[in-house]
Known about the structure:
The protein is of the alpha/beta class. 38% of the residues lie in helices and 25% in strands. Strand 6 (153-159), helix 7 (164-172) and strand 7 form a beta-alpha-beta unit.
Amino acid sequence: MTKKTSHGIVPTSMALETLVKIASDLSITLSDKQIEQFSTYQKDLLDWNTRINLTGIKDPVEIEIKHFADSLTILDSIPKEAHRLADIGTGAGFPGIPIAIMRPDIEVVLFESVGKKCSFLEHIVNTLELKNCTVVNMRAEDAAKQEVCRNTFNVVTARAVSHTENLITWGLDLLASKGIMILQKSSDAAIQESDHVKNLLRVSRLDLMSIKQIHHPSFVNKSIIILKKNV
């Protein structure tokens, strides 16, 4: 069985009903083109993952939930006026590529230190024709020393790539004045680290805006920490 879209025929197995349903629950509407892009992303991720260790998740529906939909949970935390976003430790492109798909008005820069993962990222960015997305094979802490990157991003994102303290250190110098950092953590980790983070913020240039728990049955232990650069 197939699903007809304005961009052609997409097999039902690749039509991402689970992603579309969760997105709808989050008040996010996917266009036919965006569904097609996510379908291609899913297919190529599974294909490349047989040769390169990109993700431990091999079930297509689980990819919809734990990679695609999970990435979209931060969408409403990104300011409408934001125009430059850095995704640090992006791995196979999360949450950066889903954000680039949904927000073509934002320049998304994917920072990844592993060369093989960057090869996949460059492939998928080109395949999906994401003109607003760039892959940089570099650690975020090294990128922050580059004039072209330092203090230039309205938003910095990271998804469970390290302890919050490290993410704050790595991302702070990438942020422009009044920029925000969006960190995706397990709720347990967010609670465990909250006091330490608050102590760290007292001597940093960041303020804690909020710690939001995702209220959806697919994400029972997910929180979003939002920090704002105060200079």
